[in-house]
Each structure stands twice: as structure tokens, then as C-alpha cells.
Amino acid sequence: MALIITDECINCDVCEPECPNEAISQGPEIYEIDPNKCTECVGHYDTPQCVEVCPVDCIPKDPAHVESEGQLWVKYEKLTGNPGRR
């Protein structure tokens, strides 16, 4: 499942550089996560790095983009060209 940034975002800029897939960008009002690029850091880290650094805890799983860990690995493989370690 991709992650989403909620209205509680304070635009602190700490999440964007932490994303290994470049899925996070500044939106019109708050930062946004591209669900087509978000793998919850599967393939890169054990935990989503944006969630780890967010000071206001505003990055939950996005219920509109439900994906299994296997689907996240496939997305990782497509984005990086690296074989997954499933």
C-alpha cells in the first residue's frame, strides 16, 4: 500500500530527500506522495523513511492504494531495474 501525507503536514521539508524513489514532492499546499512511485521503502529500507523522519506523524498508509508486500516488490523492481529479494 502506498503512503499518503495528510493535512497535518507542516511543510518541514524533511521527508522529500529521504524518499529513495523520489515519490515525494511539494504539492500546492502540502507535500504529496506519488502512489505509482511509493514502495513504502520496500527494497531500500526496513521501514518507510518518510514516516521515520516526520515530526508530526502525518504519513499513514493510503487506503485508496492497497498493495501487498509482493506488489510493492514488483513496483520496486520496475522503478529500479533491480531484482527483488522477496
What does it look like?
With 86 residues, this protein is an alpha+beta fold. The protein is 20% helix and 7% strand. The chain has helices at 49-53, 69-80; strands at residues 24-26, 31-33. The longest helix is centred in the C-terminal third of the chain and has 12 residues, at 69-80.
Morphology call: globular
Radius of gyration: 12 Å
Low-confidence stretches: none
How many helices? The count is 2
The largest pleated sheet is described as:
2 strands, antiparallel
Which keywords apply here?
two-stranded antiparallel sheet; alpha+beta; globular; 2 helices; 2 strands; 86 residues
The gist of it:
The chain has 86 residues and is α+β, with helices and mostly antiparallel strands. It is 20% helix and 7% strand.
Topology, please?
Blueprint: E1 24-26, E2 31-33, H1 49-53, H2 69-80
Antiparallel strand pairs: 1-2
